[in-house]
Every structure is written in structure tokens, then in C-alpha cells.
Amino acid sequence: MTEEKDMKRFQFGLCEWALEARGAALCKIVSEAGLEAIQLGIGKEALRGQGLLCRELQDEYMEAAEKYGLTFTSISMTVLDHISMCDQNDTASREKAMELIFEGIRIAKRMGMPMLMCPSFNKSEISGKSAFEMTVENYRKICREAAAQGLMVTTENNMGAEDMLSLVRLVNADNFGIYFDSQNHYLKYKLSTPDLFEMLKDEVYEIHVKDGRGNDLSGALLGTGDTGFFKTAEKIVKSSYRGFIVIENYYTQPPLSTKGNSPKRLLAQDVETLKKAFV
User: Which candidate, 241, 224, 246, 214, places its Cα nearest to that of 74?
Assistant: First the structure.
């Protein structure tokens, strides 16, 4: 990063899966939108050996990032939606999950990223004591591997604040923390997102921002949904958090894609809101 970026408290980015473009095309869009970074993902396509597992795509991203002055914040292992890292009854799934996570660590290192994020939703949902214990065990292994490469590991999940803090304590690794999300807990449990951040803030290492109404995941422009976006932003600003704020709205999917504006225009509106909220 440049010296100017290093001095800034907040840096703003976009999740790769918020748009359909990939590689150099996505980097161009992100740069033109006035953002500084992209969070990349290793998703379901990795089960076929595709996507970011391909060195050609890695190289395309790195060349484009240099051209447009962008940073990669982290890799999100979104493939964990489709295979489980914590199902004690599915050894094959767990082994594949860990194999891909370790490959994600190698890719993050090669591409100069400081962090790997493991989301625990759908197939990898941490539900029940056995799943929690298996998650702790696997995170310890992941953190050891990541530490050897100088990388941070974060967890994004739907557990309550006490359970998330317990997970951090039990993993007990200096390079492990929480990836905070501004909608997930409100969407699933109607929990106050500002209050949740206040409880977790000392363990938060990166942040997703998105909004929605009712059951719409990432389905409303920032500040127009029912998640309390501006109150959450206020809590973040008042905290000691420094780092990336990453937009995770889905601009090419309903309901946002039905609003009559192009994805680029929708993104531009969110970027404007984001920069006003985090001052």
C-alpha cells in the first residue's frame, strides 16, 4: 500500500461476488467507483479446480491491481457454504474443506494478502457442541499454517457474541479474530447490529457492510434497509477499529438488480453513502 493509504484510518473495498465481473474487468470497476480494495473469494467453482485456484486468474488480478492501485484485503473461503469443515459425520467433506483452506493460505501469501477468512454458514454452520468443538480444532490447525505464512485468520459466523468470543479464546492463537458483518445477525435473529459490534469490537479485524429489508440478504442500498446501518457505522467510528470496510451488497441479484439502475450506478450510490458514514 502507499504511504497515503497506510495513514488512513479506514480503507474501502468491495467483495468480488458483489458483481459478476472478475479479474481485470472487476479491478477497473472498483477503481472507477473510487474504492481502494477487493476481497477475493474461493467459492463453489474451486470444487472443480476453477476460479482463484487457477494461477492465470491470480496473475490477472495482481497485474490489474498494480495498474489500478488496488489492494486485496483477504480471501474468503465461500466454498465452505458447500462443504463442511465441522461435520464429524462427514470425513471426506472436512478433509476437502481443509485441503482448500490450506490452498487458500498459499494463494493469499502468493498474492500478498494479509488475511484468510472462513465463513461458517450453510454446510459449515456451527450448530451444536460437536460442530463447535470440531471448528475449534480445525481453526487451531488453520492458524498454525497461516502463522507460518505470516497471515491472519478470521471467522464470520452467526453465533452470538458470547459464543464468538469463546471461540476466539479457545482457538487461542495470536493470528485469529472475528470478521464482523453489518447484517447477518439482524437478518437471522433480529439482534441489534450496533450492540453486537460493541460487544465484539476488540476482536474485529475486518468488516463487511451491507443492508437489506426483511429477509433480503444484501438487498438494499446502505442506509435504506432495516439493519441500523448508520448506527452501526457510528459505533465503528467511535471505536478504535482501523482497517478495511468492505461492501457486500449484491448488485446483480434481486432485489437490488430490479431497482432500474445499473450495478455500477448502485455501487456508486453505496460508495457515496459509505464515505459519508465513515468520517
Answer: 246
Single pTM value for the model: 0.95
* Mean pLDDT to the nearest integer, 230-241: 98
**Is the confidence at residue 6, as pLDDT, over 70?**
no
Given a contact cutoff of 8 angstroms between Cβ atoms, the answer to whether 139 and 167 are in contact is yes
Cβ–Cβ under 8 Å, residues 52 and 46: yes
Contacts of 92 (CB under 8 A, 6+ apart): none
What pLDDT digit, counting tens, does each position of 76-104 carry?
999 999 999 999 999 999 999 999 999 99
Instruction: Return the pLDDT at 7.
Output: 62
pLDDT at residue 259 in the model: 82
- Per residue, the 3-state secondary structure of the chain, as one string, reads CCHHHHHCCEEEEEEHHHCCCCHHHHHHHHHHCCCCEEEEECCHHHHHCCHHHCHHHHHHHHHHHHHHCCEEEEEECHHHHCCCCCCCCCHHHHHHHHHHHHHHHHHHHHCCCCEEEEEECHHHCCCCHHHHHHHHHHHHHHHHHHHHCCCEEEEEECCCHHHHHHHHHHHCCCCEEEEEECCHHHHHHCCCHHHHHHHHHHHEEEEEECCCCCCCCCCCCCCCCCCCHHHHHHHHHHCCCCEEEEECCCCCCCCHHHCCCCHHHHHHHHHHHHHHHCC
